[in-house]
## 1
Amino acid sequence: DAGVIQSPRHEVTEMGQEVTLRCKPISGHNSLFWYRQTMMRGLELLIYFNNNVPIDDSGMPEDRFSAKMPNASFSTLKIQPSEPRDSAVYFCASRPPYEDEQFFGPGTRLTVL
Amino acid sequence: DQQVKQNSPSLSVQEGRISILNCDYTNSMFDYFLWYKKYPAEGPTFLISISSIKDKNEDGRFTVFLNKSAKHLSLHIVPSQPGDSAVYFCAANIYSGGGADGLTFGKGTHLIIQP
C-alpha cells in the first residue's frame, strides 16, 4: 500500500514567489494534518482537516499561508508570497478513523532564497 | 512555550546497552502519548504509544513508561542496535478517539548507537 505522498520533495524558490505543496493521504484515512519542521521550533502543527473540513488553523503562521482539501484524496498548502523564513521541511500526515496514530509523508524541503 | 520538552538534543549509547530517552510535558490535559522515530530525509514513523490510564506499555525491545504525577515519560530500548540510530520525537495529544486533534511534538533527541 502506498503511504502518504507529498510533492515536490524539494522546492527552491525566490522570495516573493508563490509556493504550492501537495499531499495525497492514505486511502480511507479521514484526517489530514500539515506540520512544519524547523531547527528553532521543531515539529509544529499548522492546520488539520477532518473529513475534508478545516478544523483548526491556529498554527498557520500568517495570512500568507493557506490550505485546502477539495476532496478526500488531495490537499494543498500554499504560501503566497514566500519569504526566506518560510524555509523548512513541511510534512503532511493522515490518520484513519478512530485511531490516534498519524502516518507521515516523506516531507517537502522548501528553500526560499 | 513548549508544552512537550525533550531536554537532551542528543544521546550516545553503546550497542547492546539500554537507551533511555526522556520527555516532559506541561499540559495536564494531555492523556495520550506517542513516540515517533525519524531517519534523515524521511517522515516520522510511529513507534509506540501509551494512554494515561497505563503506566507502562511494551512492544518488543521498546518500552514506554509514564509517570503522570511527574508529567514525565521515557522510552527504553533494550538492547540498542545500530539501526536504532535516529531522531526520536515524543508527542502528546488529548485523546480524541478518532477526533481530529493534532499532535504536540517535542524537539526530538538524536540517538546515536556506537558499535
## 2
Amino acid sequence: GQQLNQSPQSMFIQEGEDVSMNCTSSSIFNTWLWYKQDPGEGPVLLIALYKAGELTSNGRLTAQFGITRKDSFLNISASIPSDVGIYFCAGQRGYAGNNRKLIWGLGTSLAVNP
Amino acid sequence: KAGVTQTPRYLIKTRGQQVTLSCSPISGHRSVSWYQQTPGQGLQFLFEYFSETQRNKGNFPGRFSGRQFSNSRSEMNVSTLELGDSALYLCASSLINLSGANVLTFGAGSRLTVL
C-alpha cells in the first residue's frame, strides 16, 4: 500500500539536543497527524494539523503542515530520556470513501543518551 | 473516560489455527479501524468499520476478516494462520470531528505469535 516518506529512519542523540523529523508525499493531504509509540503500546496522538501552513505546539513538540500540503515536520526541543520511542506521521487525503484512510510513514526511531 | 481496550494482549498459536481478537472502542466512538504492525513494515491498514458496516479495506487476503456489533465493539478473525501473521494487531477508534479528520485513538494492541 501507499506510504509516506518519513525521515530520518532513526536518530541517536544526546539529552538536551533538539530533534527534527519530516514526512513527504507526492499526494496532497487535508490532515497531518503525528503519533508516538512506546515499546509494547499503541501509538498515541501528539499533534493534529488541519490547515496548510499551520504551526502547532504541544509542550516541547512543534509540528507544521507544509504549505504545499505534501509534507509535514515535527520538532522536539531539549530532548529528555522519556522522548525515546518511535514517531509516526500519518496523512489523510480526504474525508469520504477511500480517502478517509490514513496513509502512514514507517516511523522514526528516537534514542536519547542521558 | 476509558480508552480503547483490546483483548487478549498476548497469544500464541500454531500454523493452521485461527484466532479472534476483540476491541472495545471509546464510548461514543462509532468508527473502528484495525492495523497490523510488523518491524520494518510499519502500520498496515486492515479494515475500518462504522455502524456495523465495513467502510474501507486494506490489501490483505480473505483469511483476514472483521465485524462490528451494534454496541460498536469489533472483532477481527484470522483463519489458517501462517508464520508471517505474527505481528502486533492494533485497534483504533475515532470520533469524526467537525473538520472531518479521522483522528485515531489506539489500543495497546494484541501481540500474536504464530509457531
